[in-house]
Amino acid sequence: MRNLRNFLIKYYFFFLFLFLQLISLSILVSNNNFHQNKFLKSSGNITGYVLEKKNNIEQYFLLKKINEDLIKENEYLKNKLIENYYPEDTSLVPIYDTLKKQQYYYIAAKVISNTVNTQDNYLTLNKGSIAGIKPDMGIIWNEAIVGFIKDVSEHYSTAISVLNKNFVLSVKLKSTNDHGLIKWEGKDKTIVSLTGITADVPVKVGDTVITRGASARFPEGKLVGIVSEIKQNPGSMYHIINVKLFTNFSSVYNVYVIDNRYAEEQLKLEEKLNSPE
Amino acid sequence: MINIILKNIIRFVLFIFIQIFIVRHIDLGTYFTPQYYIIFLLLLPFETPDWLLIILGFICGYTVDIFNYTPGLNASACVFAAFVRPRILKLIAPRDGYENGMFPEISHMGFLWFTYYSSIIIFLHHCWFFTLEIFRFTNVIQILLKTFASGICTLILVIISQALAYKPLNKR
Asked: Which end of chain B has less Cβ packing within 10 Å, N or C?
């Protein structure tokens, strides 16, 4: 017994090292499971508060850029207003349409912190459950995809950005409607790889890639990026395509969180496919 | 004694503040991600007991983790850096050992010694850090590139901040 005690005292430093290493590694491993995340305290109120204060200062220097982004977005949206369209057919009268119900609601939020340089990048937004944000909602910036919500607290939420290993999204080519998956390779913060487009599809550099609307997170037609490079793997059925993202992750600020009112219904239905009867 | 403790508490807050609010936003591409806060561990006095060193390493890393969305990653790398520090210090000790009242800083130990000492610890820390971070890609070349690119960045930042705080000693 005394020997054991002496042994422990002699090598206590090494055991302390192992012990602390074990704690940190278990935190690291348990948090890779990205739905049971208890760690991301950025949505916790103290860190959220600190980050927001810092952000308030930072934004003064970016006001011009933010205004330009907002003006661009306003221009895009104004062009879509119904009163801008000249009625070609005068026999049609506008009626209140009860056949259509709004499916997607947008919640404006601000990015108060984000990373771009690590292997798993996250964002912190300044709105939380009180504003109606729930996990798994998509986020867009100037009509281009940014990521989706992971955790919410009362006033803040954290989100997984496109630049994260856990982000996979079903997208399609605007020109041909062929669909594939995008995933970040972890190297360049402006490039994602697009897989699943078969070699017979006439894809060109410069083609636009948009969301497909398959996942309940994003509606169809949100911008993803532009095809920047096409590689042909000899003997493979598929193109290897690099897509340059529209979203500039270093300067995302005013974003919209998409609340899909029918998400639950869609997911519940799709779950039945996967669960064995 | 109280002075040294107070000084290190201020350093802790300052270095982590710089890491989270300034260094993290230096945007030189994915390969250059300096982990400047490690300077806190580098500058702790020689007499710091081992157990305190390693616990401080853990606290320091974990604080950065909370703000950096990297659960446990910095904590693990810092604990490792704190673990190797006493060994490195023993390895590169001057012939007469470390004198009382000396600190591991440029003004006390000289530029060459400090660069040597901090580069070893920084590279070990970064190697551990990026190996854990990129782990799932099993991409050795990327790990090495990131370690060297970011390590050099960190080293430059550490030396610059030391040079800014440089006070020549009054030799008795």
From this structure: C
Judge if pTM exceeds 0.80.
Answer: no
CA distance B85 to B36: 16
Cβ contact (<8 Å) for B58 and A20?
A: yes
Say if residue A96's pLDDT is above 70. no
Task: Write down the residue that tokens 């790398």 correspond to.
Answer: B77
Q: How confident is the model at residue B79 (pLDDT cuts 50, 70, 90)?
A: very high
Distance CA(B1)–CA(A190), nearest Å, equals 50
User: What sign does the CA torsion over A58, A59, A60, A62 have?
Assistant: positive
Distance between A85 CA and the closest CA of chain B, angstroms: 44
CA dihedral A28, A32, A38, A43 (to 10 degrees): 100
Residue A140: CB atoms within 10 A of its CB come to 21
What is the DSSP code (8-state) at residue A246? Answer: S
The backbone region for B2, taken as left when phi is positive above 0, alpha when psi lies in -120 to 50, beta otherwise, is alpha
pLDDT of residue B73: 86
Residue B79's Cβ-count burial label (10 Å; 0-12, 13-18, 19+) is buried
Whether A90 shows a pLDDT value over 90: the answer reads: no
ipTM of the complex: 0.76
- Sort out which chain B residues have CB atoms less than 8 A from A16's CB and list them: 50-51, 54-55
